[in-house]
UniProtKB/TrEMBL annotation, chains A, B:
GO molecular-function terms, A-Z: DNA-binding transcription factor activity; transcription cis-regulatory region binding
Keywords: DNA-binding, Transcription, Transcription regulation
Spans through the membrane: none
Full protein name: DNA-binding transcriptional regulator, LacI/PurR family
Organism for this UniProt entry: Terribacillus halophilus
HTH lacI-type domain residues: 2-56
Keyword Transcription regulation attached: yes
Listed PANTHER family: LACI-RELATED TRANSCRIPTIONAL REPRESSOR, NTD BIOSYNTHESIS OPERON REGULATOR NTDR
Pfam families attached to this UniProt entry: LacI (PF00356), Peripla_BP_1 (PF00532)
Length: 326, 326
DNA sequence: ATGAAAGCGCTAACAG
DNA sequence: CTGTTAGCGCTTTCAT
């Protein structure tokens, strides 16, 4: 493999000079610069990035941690984040943890060792104190999940979103609502708080039911089948937590000839395209994921360039998308 | 930051010894090994990976190149591939190109510079000769797309899959079929060949129609609306190319009161969960993505460990999932 | 079994 | 403007 030395020799200059032109330094005579440039061109030389990174202690790589990529919400979030990073000239590197603590810690370790210049965490499997401790490894911002940490956290106002959706169902006269979470997490709990808050307004907080681990279409089908089996479910409204789960529920409803929304209303979350084509079309909630992703990288940029950075807790409000499932 | 020197000094040994225990070498006295180990433990020392990688010219990182992650098919493929890599003890690093040549070339450059030990390419934006040239950078295997290259390529037998699906439609008496591709690529063309082959058997190859750039639910809705607008479409069967596109078409069909499959049959591709809940449920094709992903990494392993490696062209056959849309 | 020494390829003072 | 020098943190001969 060709090195900086080779082309230095070839051009009759020192390797510092080559390094200088490589790094766009001033103070290199135009003549030598051209000579070096053409030698590089001619030989097809590429600097050894591993050496450069090692030397500079810097990679411009940003890690994006996500539970998994094959999940409609995280896929779109990760994509927005990647694009925002690329736009800043960083290299986004996606890491999937599958909820595994060790994998997550491995990524944080990379930050400590400067394999990564920063990390954007969309969701963590670690318990709060441990995560708080990891934050000391370097710039770790949180995008999506709402952790109470001493770092910048950008998240959706899930409480308000859930309140809005729930209130919307309640106003159509529904009284016995079921709330689905995918997994327990601060955001999901915030959502649940919003749900309860709406119920409380109508004095219905007593009857609140919740069910966890609902994430896929299949989960929705399963839940719906169980609920609607005897056509005498006590539930008359379901807060599904994701459009996919809601789509599964709607499917089960149709199979069991439960009319939606008359007999049972259903709301989704995320405003994924699937919500347009369910029968009936799904009432859902649209969040400004792209805006949140962009702001997260903007904040990371501030932190990386180091001027006067202070952690912020930012919240995004989305909007209700009313359709015919309510 | 702590280095290997620090703990060498602390233990009163040379840094070579520390390096040896770090790398699990033999020939280190049990006594010193323990001493070093406990010093590492105590100080929380982690070797600087950038330095290690630089020195060893090896990162154990495998790049996975994909057009984008927010796409049901690629998301699931990437996930399978990631898992398979992780199972081998490698670090899967996902790169999205968004069909951009430069981004793709950037990743190949990382291979040349040993930032990556290998690459798994799911789809390329480069023209064949250029891609062929890139293959010389190091181990680049192809998983999914069917390029005629001098490297291992694992792909689905799209031609046979399309033939099966098409034949299936034809056997129900359909005659005027429309074929949708997402983008032109060898695999997609192979699919189209299978489609034509089936038509030819029935002497219907003349009337074959194809349309490109169909990838999302929305694309499907748009296409369906156009086709069904006057309720007098000449098309009586649609080969949709993906379950999402098919779902959009089915939605449009219902809106325009076109009965499926009577008036127009529709087939999907991928057997994504969404295919279960469309109305009617979607006839689709299930491919063994996970198996293909696993074999790809197994082949990469062979190549990386270097014993007697020869490029192979492997093909996976899936199976028809007949449902009520045909 | 272990230490000394020689780099990996590159950058960054420092001294002209 | 440019070359010399001194490493970055680690691995790996090569002696011992």
């Amino acid at each position: 493999m060709r090195t900086i030395n080779d082309i230095a020799r070839q051009c009759g200059v020192s390797k510092s000079t080559v390094s200088r032109v490589l790094n766009g330094h001033p103070y290199v005579s135009e003549q030598k610069r051209q000579k070096v440039l053409s030698a590089i061109e001619e030989t097809g030389f590429t600097p050894n990035n591993l050496a450069v990174q090692f030397r500079k202690r810097k990679t411009s790589a940003i890690g994006i941690i996500t539970p998994q990529v094959d999940h409609p919400y995280f896929a779109s979030l990760v994509q927005s984040l990647s694009n925002a990073c690329a736009a800043k000239g960083w290299k986004p590197v996606i890491f999937q943890t599958f909820g595994d603590k060790k994998r997550e810690l491995d990524v944080f370790a990379k930050l400590k060792q400067r394999e990564l210049d920063g990390i954007i965490l969309t969701s963590s499997a670690l318990e709060a104190p441990l995560l708080a401790h990891c934050l000391e490894n370097g710039p770790i911002l949180i995008c999506n999940e709402k952790y109470e940490m001493d770092t910048t956290v950008c998240s959706l106002d899930e409480e308000s979103a859930a309140y809005t959706l729930t209130m919307h169902m309640l106003q159509t006269g529904k009284k016995r609502l079921l709330f689905c979470l995918d997994q327990t997490s601060p955001s999901q709990e915030a959502r649940y708080r919003g749900f309860l808050k709406a119920l409380a307004v109508k004095n219905l907080a007593e009857g609140a039911k919740r069910i966890e681990a609902m994430v896929t279409i299949e989960d929705g089908i399963r839940l719906g089948s169980e609920l609607f089996r005897n056509n005498q479910s006590l539930i008359d409204g379901i807060f599904a937590g994701s459009d996919f789960v809601a789509a599964g529920i709607l499917h089960a409803a149709k199979q069991h000839q439960i009319s939606v929304p008359e007999k049972c209303a259903v709301t989704g979350f995320d405003n994924h395209p699937i919500s347009r084509i369910t029968d009936p079309p799904l009432t859902t909630y649209d969040n400004e994921i792209a805006a949140m992703a962009q702001e997260t990288t903007a904040q990371l940029d501030l932190q990386l360039t180091g001027h006067s950075y202070v952690p912020k807790h930012l919240l995004w409000k989305g909007y209700l998308v009313p359709r015919n499932s309510t």
